[in-house]
Amino acid sequence: MKHISKQLPTMINKKLVIPVVSVMLLFAFVAYVTYEATKVQVEVTLNGETQTVETHAKTVADLMQELDVTIGKHDAISHKKDETLTTDMNIEYKKANKIVLTTGDQSKTYYTTEDTVAAFMKQKGISVGEHDQLSVDPSESIEGGMEINLDKAIQVTINDGGEESKVWTTTDTVGDLLKEASITLNDLDRLKPEKTKAVTADSTVTITRVEKVTDVVEEKTDYATVKRNDNSLSKGKEQVVESGKEGLVEKKYEVTLENGKEVGRELLSEEVKKESENQVVAVGTKEIQNTKQNTVSRGDSNTTKTLYMHATAYNWDCKTCSGSGKTATGYNLKDNPNGVIAVDPSVIPLGTKVYVEGYGYAVARDTGGNIQGNRIDVHMPSQSAARNFGSKEVKVKILD
């Protein structure tokens, strides 16, 4: 009996422990089931990646904190932070990316949750013109810290040698504009404004095309007139003895052209190609006598007969002449045009040597249909000289 009484408390303790553990396990199970049953199941999309989350979080903010997500000022989230979570809720969150946009010399920082550059530009109301230049492709995906350069085009006028054209450009200086337009300046050309000047909207860039060329010109020079006294001509009368001839000078000029128009001319050199020949004019000094008569002057050993005759002039190449250049006596007037007169042989025999006032020494070597009586026709070396001689009264001295 003593042995039995000693083991009884131990057995009773063991029986009591088993129910207590069972109860505790039951409570734990019930608590677990209750805990699991009170969870909320939601879908969360973080920066494009979707996952299903079971949580005891009460609000959207609690859930984001549980997921270790800090909601920034510029981030996008589909629900309010203090909104209570409910089963099957779909929460979308997108972190904003930082973008630095530089336009001209001004930079501005933006934050955006858009996916592409084009969507970002549209979101911010930033227009990109047809002629503007963007440093990235509009379809490029947005990345954090992205730097974008936007060069806005301006319209300017280029006046190249008088021809105007309007162009769009994003360049900064006049020099860059010319390079972009493939315009080359020559050494003498003028540019306004200078290459280093800034290009501004609606400005005009003017290029004056300058070139220098050599111009060769032949110019005629006048002949001088020399007058000589002739006592065989009546006083106050003049007669061309030798016709003048114009000279020829070659002049070289350096000509400056601006946009194709001459603006300056400088003489470089001149060369005489042909000298002019003076015109010789005989000026009469003889006093006019009141009476005209044939006289005979007698000296100690010689007798000189003087006749007053009507004189005209001709040239062998005249329209009414034969054109052969030969006189009635066969004398060649082409080769010997001076000192020949046509006479009436019954008055002055052919071959007679004479001195004709206003003409000079001559020989009677020709005749003519109209040369009758006291008339003579003096031969001149050219038709113009014959015309200049005209028709006049002269004194003819018979020398033999």
Molecular structure report:
The structure is a single chain. The chain is α+β, with helices and mostly antiparallel strands. It folds into five domains: 55 residues, Phosphatidylinositol 3-kinase Catalytic Subunit, Chain A, domain 1 (Ubiquitin-like (UB roll)), CATH 3.10.20.90; 55 residues, Ubiquitin-like (UB roll), CATH 3.10.20; 55 residues, Phosphatidylinositol 3-kinase Catalytic Subunit, Chain A, domain 1 (Ubiquitin-like (UB roll)); 68 residues, Resuscitation-promoting factor rpfb (Resuscitation-promoting factor rpfb fold), CATH 2.20.230; 110 residues, Barwin-like endoglucanases. Helices cover 16% and strands 42% of the residues. The strands form six sheets. It has a six-stranded mixed beta barrel with strand order 20-24-21-23-22-25. Strands 2-1-4-3 form a four-stranded mixed sheet, with no helix packed on it. Strand 22 and strand 23 form a beta hairpin. The longest helix has 36 residues. The radius of gyration is 64 Å and the shape is rod-shaped.
Describe how the helices and strands are arranged.
Blueprint: H1 2-37, E1 40-46, E2 49-55, H2 60-66, E3 76-77, E4 90-94, E5 97-103, E6 106-112, H3 117-123, E7 133-134, E8 146-151, E9 154-160, E10 163-169, H4 174-180, E11 190-192, E12 204-208, E13 210-221, E14 225-234, E15 238-242, E16 247-258, E17 261-274, E18 279-286, E19 295-298, E20 303-314, E21 340-342, E22 353-356, E23 360-366, E24 375-379, H5 383-389, E25 392-398
Parallel strand pairs: 1-4, 5-8, 9-12, 14-18, 20-24, 21-23
Antiparallel strand pairs: 1-2, 3-4, 5-6, 7-8, 9-10, 11-12, 13-16, 15-18, 16-17, 19-20, 20-25, 21-24, 22-23, 22-25
GO biological process, one term: peptidoglycan turnover
Domain G5: 207-287
GO molecular function: hydrolase activity, hydrolyzing O-glycosyl compounds
